[in-house]
Amino acid sequence: MKTFGENLKNLRKYHKISQCDFAKKMKTSQQRISEWECDKVEPSLYNILRIIKILDCSFEDLADGIDCEQ
């Protein structure tokens, strides 16, 4: 089973973007990106839409393998 944070981290690394550079593109802090990737905090819908645009991915890419029955 995967998590949103794992999918986000994998997609970010696939695009060879550091957390710091990704945070700048997202107009947020590197700490916030880390919290998302460690599944400590979930991004807002607005931020999910920004992630999709910046990483040129789909919502399905971010949600792949997530167990919604938890």
Report on this model:
- The protein has five helices and no strands.
- It has helices at 4-14, 19-26, 30-37, 45-54, 59-63.
- Helix 2 (19-26) packs across helix 3.
- The chain has a single domain (4-63), classed as lambda repressor-like DNA-binding domains (434 Repressor (Amino-terminal Domain)).
- The chain is globular and about 35 Å long.
- The longest helix has 11 residues, at 4-14.
- With 70 residues, it is an all-alpha fold.
- 60% of the residues lie in helices and 0% in strands.
Provide key terms for this protein:
70 residues; mainly alpha; 434 Repressor (Amino-terminal Domain); 5 helices; 0% strand
Quick description:
This protein is mostly helical and 70 residues long.
Strand content: under 5%
Fraction of residues in helices?
A: 55-70%
Contiguous low-pLDDT stretches (5 residues minimum) are none
Integer average pLDDT: 95
Topology of this protein?
Elements lengths: L3 H11 L4 H8 L3 H8 L7 H10 L4 H5 L7
Helix pairs in contact: 2-3
